[in-house]
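User: I'm new to structure prediction. If I give you an amino acid sequence, what do you actually give back? Let's try with this one:
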Amino acid sequence: MRHLLVTSILAVSLLGCGAALQPVGSETVESRSGDRPDWINTVPDNKGDIMYWVGRRTGGNSEEGALTDAREKSTAQIVNYLGTYNNKLYEYARIEKAANADLGSIGPYIKDLVQSFKRKVLTSGMRQKHIYTEKVRKVVGEGQVAYHYNAYVLMETSGKHLKSMQLKSVNEQLKKARAQNDKEAQKALKGMSDKLKGLEQ
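Assistant: Good question. You get back a string of structure tokens that encode the predicted 3D arrangement of the chain. For your 201 residues, that looks like this:
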């Protein structure tokens, strides 16, 4: 019994020495939500109609907070991507009006259209496919450790769904232009709607 007690004390002492030998700043992953996936480093290629986005957050104070930040970062990527769609909307409007950069009375419709489209994408156009988290221990001083969390989120969007929501946003503004009997805006928005319908086919 005494031999067992001495052995246990020695084992704990050795473990303590091992931890103390770790240099300040060194990190160790203490736990993870599963196997480390490849997509946290390399965003998957588009698969048919599906596009992928990866949000990353390292050094979070909590797992939930890190996940929230990771989701927000993937959302920001999609919003930036939507800029290309928005530019097309303005381009279509200018073509239909046969004007230069000045959209005149059509401008407010396009502005509302863009905001409506973004809201639709951010509320129903994104799907969370996978998440991965890690709890990390970091040596911050002699005998002192701190913990933080890394989180990664894989999101996906459908190209067809994006176009469908864009078309819906255009048609909402077309309906508004008709209600206000704005002939110029009706012509431009109808042309945009027809072009988007062609893109869907």
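You can read the tokens as a compact description of the fold. Here is one thing that stands out. The helical segments are 2-20, 63-97, 107-124, 159-179, 183-200.
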